[in-house]
């Protein structure tokens, strides 16, 4: 057991370089703090990185989800399917628009929504009973969107891919083509977050990607109050240079120039960060094979490793043991359907047994690009010591 004293080790943290600081300072000294040239530049570069037609920068991932639900026309009475093993926002966006959330249980090997169970559910109801599907690339493991698309086409659903955990992640489709998370080939819309623990960190920030021009235009409108100055869209005769119209009830969900400047420099290191995450995952995998009592979630070639999740019988014991050593592991997630808010809407503990069993044993170990090999070894040694391996 190593006796080195380490700084506290969180489960995730941002990595800010001098280039990041410079980019923000330059923007502070420019003419634009919000809605300047950095917004469009970040959108364009992000779209290129993901391999998608359109990208819309917004104030955070939750705003991204809200605008997606609005753009797809979610309304009271509509039903939308999502997973319980996600951050609450994946489900909440449906509620913002008055829709109803239907949680479907997970595949215990991956903790992703079980698309087989989604199919069973869809087959029990007439077409049109459900409106949409919000799959989540949980921990950075891409959902098989080819299968999801098939369901969506068969049952008339739209898809919002919550790709907050998976920028740069991908899976191989049945034709052997690489499908990058958020590339717009299979989902109608995809969303990302730039919260500090995510791959690209801007403090607050988010992005929506799509290949659908109709949705793209709607998102631009909704992002700024539903207001347009676009001559082609104006209904009434133009009354002068000041003229604009509020055509829909939108929001102020803009991402400021300063943060887009930070996003641009962060994005330049995205591949490097992703490579380091994958290396850390391989090192954890190697360390935990043959450790009885520790079961990592399944990996995959295109995994983006936002999280590295293990499952352990005495999860609470391990969590406390690591904390005493300044290792701040975390639990992702408390199943959303068990939150008091969703219980008030009729969901109960026991409704989704596989998600609840997963929650009872899951723990996310430190996973971020600036985690050093020595720090990781300290984490590994501590976990091993706890299980007596
Ligand atoms: C972080 C996250 C969000 C919300 O993003 P914010 O930028 O924090 O609003 C939504 N879904 C998932 C899966 C997330 O991890």
From TrEMBL:
N6-(pyridoxal phosphate)lysine modified-residue sites: 198
Enzyme's top EC category: transferase
GO MF term set: pyridoxal phosphate binding; transaminase activity
Residues of the active site: 198 (proton acceptor)
Gene Ontology biological process terms in this record: polysaccharide biosynthetic process
Family indicated by similarity: Belongs to the DegT/DnrJ/EryC1 family.
Listed name of the protein: UDP-4-amino-4, 6-dideoxy-N-acetyl-beta-L-altrosamine transaminase
Organism of provenance: Hymenobacter oligotrophus
Lineage of the organism: Bacteria, Pseudomonadati, Bacteroidota, Cytophagia, Cytophagales
